[in-house]
Amino acid sequence: MFNKDFRPRRLRTSDTLRRMVRETRISADSLIWPIFIIEGEGICDEIPSLPGQYHYSPDMLGRAVERMRAHGVSRVLLFGLPKHKDENGSSAWDSNGVVQQGIRALRAIAPELYIITDVCMCEYTSHGHCGILCGHYVDNDRTLEVLARTAVSHARAGADMVAPSDMMDGRVAAIRAALDENGFVNTPVMAYSAKFASTFYGPFRDAAGSAPAFGDRRSYQMDPHNGREAMRECELDVQEGADILMIKPAMPYLDLVRECRDRFDLPVAAYQVSGEYAMIKAAAKAGLIDEYGVMCESAVSIFRAGADILITYFACELADAIRKGDIG
User: Each residue of 191-203: pLDDT tens digit?
Assistant: First the structure.
């Protein structure tokens, strides 16, 4: 029987005890920092749509490494901006392509880094779509061949992991088979398993020069209304040999991060995308929010939902917050 004199209360704790009993734990090892590599020399230019983020030419990646080391971040996700684009995105698998140059440069100056590469065609095609076109439609099966070829070229250059973001059907199986056939049996695949046709990608498309020249990507990226379909996509990637499943974007899809965590026995990554980052930056600049606090709280929410890995432009700042004990 309920005791009417009982007064439930929260435990009054010191900062030390509060940190000891936190349910959600975050480590700097779980953070991945996206980096944009642009073809050329002597380039280290801030990206207007992503304040605090830069375009680095391969010879200037030492500056990115200095920043990472200063903050204790050691995992990167590389995106490339080539000079040459064509209908087939042929520079994507060029052994001297911009990402391949970047991998080798990072390996030379920072062998301790864990290097992940984005595998997609949108940055490399003249039309900006994520695959090879047949008329105004993406040819799924032809695209699988070039994605696999690109993944192998990244592994040969020294990538530790590849991350296909194209959302073509069967791409995980095609990439896994190609990696294995070329001796990269231990190179894992982090699949963009549920990548939604989101309006949150605007700053990234500006930064990567990857906006489609016509139409949109709704025929191969996911409808934001469809949660069950997202889980089917994740299940297919599990069956095809993915090592990590990713939900993208992160905060608008925390329900799917949780469902993915509950349903599949694989690590779950979430990508806090460019629009999420840019909104926090813009609101903070306008004096509407506390940037540091919102950054921390948003990261905690993603991990609390079930993510094991967070890809975020705030990686360096979050690593500092973890070291201070404000999160983690």
Answer: 999 999 999 998 8
